[in-house]
Structures are given as C-alpha cells and as structure tokens.
Here is the input.
Amino acid sequence: MSKTKQVFLATHSPYFLVSEYLNTIGLFIFCLESGVPKIDRINGAKSNLLPWSPTWGEINYEGYKLPTIEFHNDLYGRLQELSEKRNINKFEGWLVDQGVKKTKQWTKETKGNGGGTQKTQRC
Here is the structure.
C-alpha cells in the first residue's frame, strides 16, 4: 500500500520501530513544547543512542522529556558495556575515574529483596 499511498501509523512500541526499513522512511516524534506543537525527525544519529534503540525509555524521554528509571537503566547498561566493567564496584570506580560525582544513595535489591548496603548513584 505504501508504494502508491502515504501511510501514517502512530505507535509507542519499540518492537514495532526496530526495523531495517526505518532507514528509508520518516520516523517522527510529535509533542507539545510550551503549548506549541513540535515535530522532530529522529532518523539517523539521534535515534541510535543505544545499539538496541529505540527503547521504551528513549521513546518517553524523546517524546515527553520523561527521564524514567527505564531510560536511566538503558544508559547505565550502555555505559557499563562501553567500560567493559561487568562488576558493579569496578564500574562504579570507572565512573569516578571519568569524573562522574557521587550524588545520591540507593539500596541494592536482589530477587525482590531490598535490604543491602546503600550504594552511591550518579545523576
């Protein structure tokens, strides 16, 4: 149908958006900024923040400026991957070496149980 007609499709699904065909079509984010409609085309570098883009976290951040826990986890995981530090303590040390300051406290949760030692988180 798209060979002879223009097709519009609205979705928030990152599963639907991951496709080799997105390189040949327009992918846009529509939102309101200060009450004014804004349209951003996100094909290209902006849509490739993570190798597994787009994620729910990216969609919510790009479309609604919501820095969700999921987006934080996406970014944290990507940095951990780039650092090649699989151990959390070694990765935390790597962040300090990069000049990232410790600003908040968090409690490590394992299998649904919170109660570990408080660790320092970055913002």
